[in-house]
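Support reply, case 0932

Customer input (verbatim):
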Amino acid sequence: DDAVKAAVETVASSDLVIFASPTFKATYTGILKLFLDQFATGDGLRDVTAVPLMLGAGPAHAMAPDLLLKPVLVELGATCPAPGLYLIDSTYTTDTRIADYAERWSAAVRSTVRTEA
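Our regenerated output:
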């Protein structure tokens, strides 16, 4: 599909990508898996700094971004310099942890984003 191909090319050429998904059966969704399957193992996301983000109904799956999504991104060649972020789906728009996360990890993320010469 041309739209999927364009999306893959956009992501692969991006400096920073937030890979976000609702939690589905304790992991990321099948549609995100299908999208990630479009990238070559090892270098499909080379030079991409990635942040895994997941939403869920409660704290039971708070480790999902780090345990399930981050390893896949790294396997595809992305650099993940910060821990994944997990937010509660009913409160993420007002959650102050987003600002706390950005303040704590922005320097690490910025340091891994490639810069143009």
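We compared this against your earlier run and they match. Two observations from our side: The first helix runs from residue 2 to 12. Residues 2-112 form a domain with the Rossmann fold fold (CATH 3.40.50.360). Please reopen the case if you see a mismatch on your end.
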